[in-house]
């Protein structure tokens, strides 16, 4: 289906009727490898993969039940309705050969020249397997995310991803940052797939009235390419926190930033810039967090495996006792490790 769509051979997917399948089903007892396959029936015009699966199961069960009752399976065309548990007879086959071919003496030999083959080969767009490989190896996406991007919105989600990657790359270059593609493309992929996906499952009544339509050419009116790129630019450069970035995305989706011309103006106007704690402030916060936690600290000495869970518990206390909007979790964890090491080194 993906391949046919890539070469523009069908107008839509199976769910819209642009691609349908016929399946042939026959049965024989397990272990009867030497016995020919049973008489097959054909089920026509199945419109989804699930329909193919369910129709095969229904026809398999029908044939087995018929044979066990001593009935003969007839070669015929059968139909199946979505949601049904039974196939139905449409018409019988005229003979063992379903399609009879007749030579036509008026048709001359068809010669396809190498020039036509070359022209057609050059006109074919990048095929799905090649694109999937590029998304994984060049862009650094997981196979699961790459497949999801390629399958959503009739290719529109993938085009949307490419446009944001390009726009973000330009912004980073203009900021004198020359990162490798794999250092920021996965961030874009995560947001285009998962953070955008969360917008449509939000239980907020206001959010339910909005739609997240992405056109095949990668345009999204609710969350424009440049706006999401701008959010990710500031997030990657640690100018805003992840929490603020998600809040900006939601506000953008709900059209609550219309008074600002750009995302940057919104961050400035709402005073959302990340003003990170100094190292001394981090250390003071870490010292406060471990007060009264002697039992927890002893585990860092006695445990053979580093107690990562206890470390994150103490980092969590830092987040609770401090100003979360000024704390970088990675830096908080780094400082907490150092403070714990200082307090436990004499006990080793």
From TrEMBL:
The keyword ATP-binding applies. One of its GO terms (biological process) is mitochondrial translation. Keywords: ATP-binding, Ligase, Nucleotide-binding, Protein biosynthesis. SUPFAM superfamilies: GatB/YqeY motif, Glutamine synthetase/guanido kinase. It comes from the Eukaryota. The keyword Transferase does not apply. It catalyses: L-glutamyl-tRNA(Gln) + L-glutamine + ATP + H2O = L-glutaminyl-tRNA(Gln) + L-glutamate + ADP + phosphate + H(+). InterPro entries: Asn/Gln-tRNA_amidoTrfase_suB/E, Asn/Gln-tRNA_Trfase_suB/E_cat, Asn/Gln_amidotransferase, Asn/Gln_tRNA_amidoTrase-B-like, Gln_synth/guanido_kin_cat_dom. Residues 159-340 form the Asn/Gln amidotransferase domain. GO terms for cellular component: glutamyl-tRNA(Gln) amidotransferase complex; mitochondrion. GO terms for molecular function: ATP binding; glutaminyl-tRNA synthase (glutamine-hydrolyzing) activity. This is Asn/Gln amidotransferase domain-containing protein. It comes from Colletotrichum noveboracense.
């Amino acid at each position: 289906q993906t391949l046919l769509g890539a070469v523009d051979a069908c107008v839509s997917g199976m769910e819209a009727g642009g691609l349908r399948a016929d399946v042939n089903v026959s049965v024989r007892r397990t272990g009867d490898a030497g016995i020919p396959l049973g008489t097959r029936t054909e089920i026509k015009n199945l419109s989804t993969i699930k329909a193919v699966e369910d129709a095969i199961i229904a026809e398999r069960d029908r044939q087995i039940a018929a044979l066990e009752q001593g009935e003969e399976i007839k070669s015929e065309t059968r139909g199946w309705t979505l949601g049904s548990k039974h196939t139905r007879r449409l018409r019988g086959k005229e003979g063992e050969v379903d399609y009879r071919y007749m030579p036509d003496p008026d048709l001359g030999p068809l010669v396809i020249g190498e020039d036509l083959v070359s022209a057609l080969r050059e006109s074919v767009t990048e095929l799905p397997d090649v694109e999937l490989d590029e998304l994984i190896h060049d862009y650094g996406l997981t196979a699961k995310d790459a497949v999801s991007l390629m399958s959503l919105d009739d290719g529109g989600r993938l085009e949307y991803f490419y446009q944001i990657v390009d726009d973000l790359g330009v912004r980073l270059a203009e900021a004198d940052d020359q990162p490798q593609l794999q250092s920021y493309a996965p961030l874009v992929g995560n947001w285009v797939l998962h953070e955008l996906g969360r917008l449509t499952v939000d239980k907020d009544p206001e959010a339910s009235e909005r739609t997240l339509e992405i056109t095949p050419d990668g345009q999204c009116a609710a969350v424009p390419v440049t706006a999401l790129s701008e959010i990710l630019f500031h997030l990657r450069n640690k100018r805003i926190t992840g929490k603020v970035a998600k809040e900006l995305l939601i506000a953008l989706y709900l059209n609550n930033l219309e008074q600002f011309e750009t995302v940057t103006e919104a961050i400035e106007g709402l005073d959302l810039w990340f003003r990170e704690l100094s190292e001394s402030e981090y250390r003071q916060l870490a010292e406060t967090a471990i007060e009264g936690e002697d039992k927890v600290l002893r585990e860092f000495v006695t445990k053979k495996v580093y107690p990562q869970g206890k470390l994150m518990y103490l980092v969590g206390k830092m987040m609770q006792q401090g100003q979360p909007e000024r704390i970088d979790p990675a830096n908080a964890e780094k400082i907490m490790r150092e403070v714990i090491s200082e307090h436990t080194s004499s006990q080793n």
